[in-house]
Amino acid sequence: MPIWKKPIDLALLKAANRNTAVEHLGIEFVEVGDDFLRARVPVDHRTIQPFGLLHGGVSVVLAESMGSTGAYYALPEGYRAVGLDINANHLRSATSGWVTGTAKPVHIGRTTHVWHIDLHNEAGELTCVSRLTMAILAPR
C-alpha cells in the first residue's frame, strides 16, 4: 500500500526542484515506489572535492533531498516537514559515474518521521548510509 498522501511522480519532483541545489548539483529523481524514493547524483566537476572524490557533503545533500521529499509527500495536504537531524557514514568513495540513493521511512509518526537512506556507486557498492529525522509541522 502506498505511503504517499499527495500526488507524486517524477515530473512533479523535477518541477519542484527547478532552480534549487538539487538541480544545480545534477541530482535526478529516478523512481517512486509505494514506500521509497530513488534519486542519483553525477560524480562530476559540480560534485567532487579537490581529490576527485564525490564530496561527502553532496552525499548528505542527496540523502536529505530524498528523505525530506519523501516526508513531504507522505503527509496530508497543509502539513510541512523540516529537517531536524541528519547523519551520514561515508563507507566508500566514488570517483566517476553516478551515485544512486534509496530512501525509505523507518518511522512515520504524527510529529516526526525517520528516513533511512542508502547510497550505492555504479558497481552496486554501498558508499554511504544516512539517517534523517524530520519534524512535522501542522497547518497554521
UniProtKB/TrEMBL annotation:
Belongs to the thioesterase PaaI family. Gene3D superfamilies: Hotdog Thioesterase. GO terms for cellular component: cytosol. Keywords: Hydrolase. It comes from the Bacteria. InterPro entries: HotDog_dom_sf, PAAI_dom, Thioestr_dom. Pfam families: 4HBT. Residues 51-128 form the Thioesterase domain. This is Esterase. One of its GO terms (molecular function) is 1,4-dihydroxy-2-naphthoyl-CoA thioesterase activity.
